[in-house]
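Technical annex, item 7. During the second reporting period the consortium partners agreed on a shared format for inverse folding records so that results from different sites could be compared directly. Each record opens with the tokenized structure and is followed by the designed sequence. A conforming record, contributed by the partner at site C, is shown below for reference.
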């Protein structure tokens, strides 16, 4: 099933105030209309826009995060 919409929760405040703030979450809506938590991420390492997820399957979207994490760690 494909992702039809996505949203990203708010970013943490700048450090040090945001040290204990929640990390942003990527929430997706599939073709069945249900919303699911896809993953959380560290916004100081990688970034996403909701449009990147439209039309992907869940495994493809998870792979997108893996690729960005890998690229960041290799840089």
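Designed sequence (site C submission):
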């Amino acid at each position: 099933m494909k992702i039809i919409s996505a949203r990203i929760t708010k970013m943490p405040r700048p450090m040090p105030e945001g040290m204990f703030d929640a990390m942003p979450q990527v929430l997706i809506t599939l073709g069945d209309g249900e919303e699911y938590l896809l993953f959380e991420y560290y916004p100081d390492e990688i970034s996403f826009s909701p449009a990147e997820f439209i039309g992907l399957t869940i495994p493809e979207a998870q792979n997108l995060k893996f690729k960005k994490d890998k690229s960041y760690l290799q840089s």
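Residues 3-74 form one domain. The chain has one domain: 3-74. All partners now use this format for quarterly exchanges.
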